[in-house]
Specification:
The protein has 89 residues and is mainly α. The chain folds into two domains: 8-51, no CATH class; 56-89. It is built from three helices and two strands; from the N terminus they run H-H-E-E-H. The protein has helices at 8-30, 38-51, 73-88, and strands spanning 58-60, 69-71. A hairpin with an 8-residue loop joins strand 1 (58-60) and strand 2.
Length: 89
C-alpha cells in the first residue's frame, strides 16, 4: 500500500469540508456518490493519489507545498472517457 502523510492542517481541512458539506447539503449529499459516503469518497481519493500521483485528474500543487497534489474526480472521469474514445478509433 502506498504511504502518505496528512498534516494536522490537512486533517482539519477535511473535517471542515465534511462539516460544511453536511451543513449546506444535508445527510443525502453524504450518500449520493455511487453509494459511498462522502467521507469514504474523500478517503478513496487520498488513497488513489498516494498509489498513483500521476493519475488522470491529479495535479501537482507546488504553490501549496512540494508534495501537495489535488485530484478532481470529474477530470479523471473525463480523461478516462477521452482515452476510451481514442482507443476505439
Amino acid at each position: 500500500m502506498a504511504k502518505f502523510v496528512l498534516t494536522p492542517s490537512a486533517e482539519a481541512d477535511i473535517e471542515e469540508i465534511l462539516a460544511w458539506t453536511h451543513e449546506h447539503f444535508g445527510e443525502a449529499a453524504r450518500l449520493r456518490y455511487e453509494g459511498l459516503r462522502y467521507e469514504e469518497l474523500l478517503a478513496q481519493a487520498i488513497f488513489d493519489i498516494a498509489a498513483d500521483p500521476e493519475r488522470p485528474g491529479c495535479m501537482s500543487r507546488p504553490e501549496l507545498s512540494e508534495a501537495a497534489r489535488t485530484y478532481h474526480r470529474y477530470q479523471r472521469d473525463a480523461d478516462a472517457k477521452s482515452s476510451q474514445r481514442k482507443t476505439a478509433r
